[in-house]
Design a protein that fits this description.
The chain has two domains: 5-127 and 205-224, Rossmann fold (3-Layer(aba) Sandwich), CATH 3.40.50.1360; 136-202, 2-Layer Sandwich (Alpha-Beta Plaits). Helices cover 30% and strands 27% of the residues. It is of the alpha/beta class. The strands form three sheets. Strands 2-1-3-6-12-13 form a six-stranded mixed β-sheet. A four-stranded antiparallel β-sheet has the order 8-9-7-10. The protein is globular and about 50 Å long. β12 (210-214) and β13 (220-224) form a beta hairpin. It has seven helices and 13 strands. Bound molecules: ribulose-5-phosphate. Residues 32-36, 86-89, 99-105, 108 line the site of ribulose-5-phosphate.
Length: 225
């Protein structure tokens, strides 16, 4: 019997809670955004006394964490975090990711960068040979939207403004299709250096450290590089 994608997300999230349990008490962890991360947040309710708190990667996760009884902290006050747990839109074998389907990529990338271990939790549909079937989100400052879109076209991509969407930081998202992501680190660097780009949803230079993949048969596999 196979389980649904939603159940797979829950299984991956529950498996990641084991990493929380192994932390010394009083730790502060980073927490991502999205439907998979939401299952993780719900499970954190059982760790409210074990943890001192969490840094949230979005307003939505902040509210959910608080509802789960977890204190939300400012990254400027915590220093390096021992653990960051978040979902992804795609992962390749090198644990390089596309993220930002939920539009929270900037804060996600900051919290991932500030964490010692990034545990990424996904259902099996997110595993890909090559990144790029999922449109690559890029957060841009509003005044740079058209300029950045033209530069992306010159780089071979097809950018589309995410309709009626403003990020937690007050910016826009361009979702890029048809971009050749054979060399994700190079594409990440090229897009990063366009004036007006705040964050590229490629997590290639800083990939996940551990990928927990939940499968339709109910098992969860753990990948590292
Ligand atoms: C949000 C993200 C999410 O991690 C990504 O979109 C996956 O979401 P979900 O767990 O709902 O499939 O990057 O910005």
């Amino acid at each position: 019997m196979s389980i649904t994608i939603e159940e797979q997300k829950k299984r991956a999230a529950e498996a990641a809670l084991e990493y929380v349990g192994k932390l010394p008490s009083g730790a502060v962890i980073g927490v991502g955004t999205g439907s998979t991360a939401n299952h993780f947040i719900d499970g954190l309710r059982d760790f409210s006394r074990h943890l001192d708190g969490a840094v949230a990667s979005s307003q939505a996760s902040q509210e959910r964490l608080q509802a789960a009884g977890i204190e939300v902290m400012d990254l400027n006050m915590t220093g390096t975090l021992p653990l960051y747990v978040d979902g992804a839109d795609e992962s390749n074998a090198a644990l390089q990711l596309i993220k930002g389907g939920g539009g929270a990529l900037t804060r996600e990338k900051i919290v991932a960068a500030a964490s010692e271990t990034f545990v990424c939790i996904v259902d099996e549909s997110k595993k890909v040979e090559q990144l790029g079937a999922f449109a690559l989100p890029v957060e841009v400052l509003p005044m740079a939207r058209s300029y950045v879109a033209r530069q992306i076209v010159a780089l071979g991509g097809d950018p589309e403004l995410r309709e009626s969407f403003v990020t937690d930081n007050g910016n826009y998202i361009l979702d890029i299709s048809d971009m050749d992501l054979y060399d994700p680190c190079t594409v990440e660097a090229k897009l990063n250096q366009l004036p007006g780009v705040l964050t590229v949803g490629l997590f290639a230079q800083r990939p996940a450290d551990i990928l927990m993949v939940a499968h339709s048969d109910g098992t969860v596999s753990v990948e590292t590089v």
